[in-house]
């Protein structure tokens, strides 16, 4: 049940939870000792994932990421002492955003659970994962089977798109928010709720939060108002990739 956090908080070199994580200028992160050992073996100062050259020989510890990793590790270590009733409690895990996918105009919170649009074009690496044409950002976890559900707080923002995209979606060119382009979305624009490509949806009241439910094997993506579980819209499709 902690797969999302575990994936985000794992070092790509040792595959364990981060220990004193450092983040490179390309936004990829590793255990400090793992990165130094990798550099010694490789004979260069490139990122182990994207091969971009590091802007520094001694990256500083990412204290925010270290705090999240240490807290997660402590919770995992204490898991064996929990009683059965505690194990049965449903844990609400936030959507962890992937900073490597965020458009230049999007700023993510330190804990990577919220995003805001700004007017400044940030100087970020043009890596293959990043959306450059539109102000999009993806979560850090993808799915290729099973049932999954999460909630997104949209508040009073006047313009947003919430939903899923296929991993191979075009992140650099012109696309629409349609299933043909690999998007399954709910949207708000000009005070009208739509399915992302202009089809108006009947919504009784202003939505503050959106619950997204994915049944990958059945090909269903459904949207609900979590306050009263009112159904808003469902896509039915066939998924063939993450």
From TrEMBL:
Keyword Lipid metabolism listed: no
A Pfam match: PRY
Entry-linked PANTHER family: E3 UBIQUITIN-PROTEIN LIGASE TRIM (PTHR24103)
SMART domains noted in UniProt: PRY, RING
UniProt keywords, alphabetically: Metal-binding, Zinc, Zinc-finger
Domain (RING-type) ranges: 11-51
Domain of life of the native organism: Eukaryota
Keyword hit for Nucleus: no
Name recorded for this polypeptide: Uncharacterized protein
Domain (B30.2/SPRY) ranges: 75-242
Coiled coil: none
Single Gene Ontology MF annotation: zinc ion binding
UniProt cross-references to InterPro entries, sorted A to Z: B30.2/SPRY, B30.2/SPRY_sf, Butyrophylin_SPRY, ConA-like_dom_sf, PRY, SPRY_dom, TRIM/RBCC, Znf-RING_euk
């Amino acid at each position: 049940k902690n797969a999302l956090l575990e994936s985000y908080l794992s070092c790509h070199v040792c595959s364990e939870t981060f220990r004193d994580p450092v983040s490179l200028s390309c936004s990829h992160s590793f255990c400090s000792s793992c990165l130094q050992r990798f550099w010694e073996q490789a004979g260069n100062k490139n990122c182990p994932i994207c091969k971009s050259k590091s802007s520094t020989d001694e990256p500083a510890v990412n204290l925010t990421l270290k705090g999240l990793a240490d807290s997660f590790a402590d919770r995992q270590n204490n898991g064996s002492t929990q009683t059965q009733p505690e194990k049965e409690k449903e844990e609400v895990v936030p959507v962890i955003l992937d900073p490597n996918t965020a458009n230049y105009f999007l700023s993510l919170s330190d804990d990577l659970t919220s995003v805001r649009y700004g007017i400044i074009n940030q100087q970020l690496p043009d890596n293959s994962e990043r959306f450059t044409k539109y102000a999009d950002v993806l979560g850090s976890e993808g799915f290729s089977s099973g049932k999954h559900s999460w909630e997104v707080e949209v508040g009073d923002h006047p313009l947003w798109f919430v939903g899923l995209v296929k991993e191979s979606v075009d992140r650099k060119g012109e696309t629409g928010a349609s299933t043909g382009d690999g998007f399954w979305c709910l949207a708000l624009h000009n005070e009208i709720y739509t399915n992302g490509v202009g089809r108006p949806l009947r919504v009784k009241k202003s939505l503050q939060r959106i619950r997204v439910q994915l049944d990958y094997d059945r090909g269903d993506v459904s949207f609900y108002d979590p306050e009263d579980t009112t159904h808003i819209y469902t896509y039915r499709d066939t998924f063939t990739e993450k």
